[in-house]
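Case study.
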Amino acid sequence: MSSTIDASQILAEHSKKYKPTQISREIPIENDLNLLTAFDTNAINADELKSNRENYVKELSRDSVQNLINDLFNQPITKTLDGPLAKLPEESVYQLPREKPLPKPKALTKWQKFANEKGISHKKKDRMVFDEDEQKWVPRWGYNGINKKEENQWLHELKEGQDEDHNPASAIKGARKERSLKNVKQQLKNEGITKSIQEKQKAEAAAKRAERAQHKQELEKSLHRSKISTASLGKFDKKLSGEPTLKGQKRKFNPVTNTSDEHKSNREILDKVATGAGKLNKSTGSGSKDLVNTRRAINSTKKSKK
Amino acid sequence: MSPSRVAWRPLTEDETRAVFEKLANYVGKNLVHIINPSGASSKEDVEDDEDTAPLLRLQKDKVFLLNTSINNLATSVARPNLISLGQCLGKFTKSGKFKLGIGSLDVLARWARYKVWVKPNGELPFLYGNHVVKAHLGRITEDTPEHQGVVVLSMSDIPLGFGVSARSTVDTRKLDPTGLVVFHQADVGEYLRDEDTLF
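After joint prediction, the assembly is written out as follows.
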């Protein structure tokens, strides 16, 4: 009799030894290969979690890792000496939101704005330029620069109608200096404009921060008030673990022994009291200042009319 | 909320004003002599009067007038143990008003603007805590207005207490003998009557 092989038995043994590589879930597990993370959004079996927590969590995480590894093998793989390497995607599926807003772009200078509008891009100028007359390379500026070619001529033509003591060389040089000065002036002005814009932005940011801080303070204050607004003034309320203890307002008085400051402030208050500025209780007495007690006078005339 | 008045401490600005105004009600411009005897102005910081100029201190609602050297000595006494020091001017009520006490009589009698002298037969009734009636009135400062803080003295110029004038000097003349002239505020009889709570 030829013995038959019971395939189902072998299969069962195999499944006992090796767990399945294909994972099926109601909601498919999402993989983020860039971060090498798997997200299982299926509902957790609460009963099993209670009765058999460790194994249940282990099972779940094994499935997710299996799914992640399956996906890894689907990526383009290159063979190297160290073994196969999978190429991971450049960007992750899940982008964490920024904590703070994007920084504001820096304010452009007047020239940068103009250049952007006209589509002018920065082109680096060569330091040397070719002088056609001399047939050689000379610097654009500086010693023997081409910008000084005219003023350094050995002979200048005196044009008609110009004074006899007119010096064309110094006139040309003066014009060049003026252009340079004008440029510096414009540069400074532009810097000033951008600086003022930047300062304005900074001030706005500071104001916003201050507002937020005040809001936070108010929130804390109202929280404090609500905490001590129970019948026991918050004494017998359930506390959360790690809840900070309420801090009372500390009053600060002047030091007992620093008497010179006190004498000074006493004298100031004395002056105020003597002049009667901002008197605390205005209704005390009528006598010394007014000859007539107006309150009494009004009352007595009222009575006499009746 | 008003600041706590338990601890031994200097007065706050509002409290100082309250005390000064109450004193000024009796002594008027002479207040300067009490608080600032050297006459130093508030702008300049004078070193000389540091030891002589009096200070105001608060302990359990009571206001004390004392000079700087005693104040400095007092720092060696623990605050809960310190009961009284210097001259007790009066006390703050729970609602933050200041009331002059009999301890301030020395200062008031010396610098008072308006005074009332009572006849010998009126001394005892006043010392028992009663108001001063016209019949007991010996003498009164000429131009005393109505509702003005006045110091009450015996005919031999011994200060007996202080109060508030019920009528102006002119009105008292028309008053019948049982009419009130001075409302009682404090008298030296309190040293016996209120011995336990005075200091």
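Observations recorded in class. The CA atoms of residues 224 and 246 of chain A lie 7 Å apart. Helices of chain A lie at 7-17, 46-51, 53-73, 110-118, 168-227, 259-275, 294-305. We will return to this complex in the next lecture.
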